[in-house]
Amino acid sequence: MFVLGFHFPAEMGNKIPDEKVIEKLSDVDVSDVKEIKLLMGTKDKDKLWLSYTNKDTFLFKALVHYFKEENPNKEQKYMIYMNRYQMSEIAKRVDAADDETMALCKNLDSMEQFRIEVA
Prior knowledge:
The chain is an alpha+beta fold. 35% of the residues lie in helices and 18% in strands. The chain has one domain. It has helices spanning 18-24, 58-68, 81-94, 99-108, and strands at 2-3, 6-7, 36-40, 48-52, 77-78, 114-118. It has a four-stranded antiparallel beta sheet with strand order 4-3-6-5. A hairpin with a 7-residue loop joins strand 3 and strand 4. Helix 3 (81-94) runs antiparallel to helix 4 (99-108). The mean pLDDT is 91.
């Protein structure tokens, strides 16, 4: 099973506990990131820039991990829907008290295209 690009053994089944995913993100360094910028929309539609700055959340770490993974030049990166969905679902459970995170999760759950960059 893969969650956020992390491989979990088959014997764990399809329901990976949130704590196991959070544990995998524990080594993600967010010290060099002040803001995550998400471009929502396509070239054919109106685009909307979203900013996310709450470093104390699971979602922030997950987004930084996604951006840095296989992106050595730190270029803007297209977000795969499955990864967005997984991030959003876990964040809704573990970051539920944060209004900024919940608002971003609503956007991530949409079928819009997203690109991500960090500042």
